[in-house]
Amino acid sequence: MHLYAAANGAVLSVSGSPDDSTARRRLADHRIECVAADPRAPDRAFCGTFDAGVFRTTDGGASWHAVGTDALPESVTSLAVSPADPDVVYAGTEPSAVFRSPDGGDTWAELASLSDLDSASSWAFPPRPHTHHVRWIEPDPTDPDRLFVAVEAGALVRSLDGGETWQDRVPSSKRDTHSMATHPDRPGRVWVAAGDGYAETDDAGETWTTPTAGLGHGYCWSVVVDPADPDSVLLTAASGPMRAHRVESAAAYLYRRADSSEGGGESWERLDETGLPTGPGATRGILAAGLSGGECYAANDRGLYRTTDFGDSWDRIEVPWDGTRRTAAGLAVVE
Question: Which parts form a coiled-coil structure per UniProt (predicted)?
């Protein structure tokens, strides 16, 4: 086991096993927003901060150094590594823009301007006196030129040419997307967790559906697909942002859905008392797929957890985790 966990007080590099793990804690002086890494280069990871841009480690998390200081804004809100090439890295920023590195973070250049899209004038992020930002970047594992980008809040847009041009939001897409998932065995399928609900597409974003039977909470935060079974999905959700994010009023939940047929599938089931803290006192969980069937990792204010049966049971990963400060921001699994 080797993973990187981003939280609002540090970035952790965790290795070992759930009951015998070691953790390196770094970048404690920065406001951590996101983390990205790739199993093809497990010792290299990228951490986005709101106050100092992107940091990179090449030694498994022992040390981190700023990269892209001549090109990137200081507020980096999302990161992604290309499934087609581990040296290609994307960064989303506030204000909303997407940057690309072709060489593992050494150099960066902005892709086509998102602000030229017609819907850009309606984008806004009310909770703080700044502006909208790129919350999530999802490169398509079946098409290296296709990118999905979530602007919080206002649009889910896509590019079919590697970011040279962007296609604006479509009427059926979500406006407040928090995370997305794709799977190499489901070309054209994208799963979306959004503040305005859950959605998925089977035609690479041309149209979207909202299969929500059994989903009792509409403020969705994190979505992940079983690495060995693209018909099985996990989702974290709450009744609203206060219940999702604020420790003192938190009440977030975990749901699972299995598609048994095209266009509908099974309804969502809520997974309670599985070993992963949910309900009152638990903030929205961040999910990340593991590398084998049924394996998934989760982080919330209570700590880090791992399942090997895709949500039926969870084991706590024993690392230092102060729930009053460790609101999870991101996970990246590399081993």
Answer: none
> Cβ atoms within 10 A of the Cβ of 139, count?
23
DSSP category for residue 123: -
Token pair of 122 as six digits: 């309606």
Three-class DSSP category at 242 = helix
The per-residue pLDDT for range 206-255, each reduced to its tens digit, is: 999 999 999 999 999 999 999 999 999 999 999 999 999 888 999 999 99
Residue 260's Cα: distance from chain center in Å?
25
Q: Counting every residue, how long is the chain?
A: 335
Report the CATH fold assignment for 2-333.
Methylamine Dehydrogenase; Chain H (2.130.10)
Output the six-digit token pair for 51: 């106050």
For residue range 132-146, list pLDDT tens digits in order: 999 999 999 999 999
Give the position of tokens 């460790």: 326
Percent over 70 (pLDDT), the chain? 95
Local confidence band at 261 (pLDDT 50, 70, 90 cut-offs): very low
Is there a contact between 123 and 130 (Cβ–Cβ < 8 Å)? Answer: no
Alpha-carbon Rg of the chain, whole angstroms? 18
- Residue 206: the pLDDT is 97
Distances from the Cα of 247 to the Cαs of 11, 250, 257, 289, in angstroms? Answer: 19, 5, 27, 25
CA 207, 34, 81, 229 torsion-angle sign:
negative
- Residue 120 near residue 82, CB atoms below 8 Å: no
CB 234 within 8 A of CB 268: no
- CA dihedral of residues 156, 161, 164, 168 (deg, nearest 10): -30
Helix (H) or strand (E) holding 48, with range, is: strand 45-49
**Residue 283 contacts residue 8 (beta carbons within 8 Å):** no
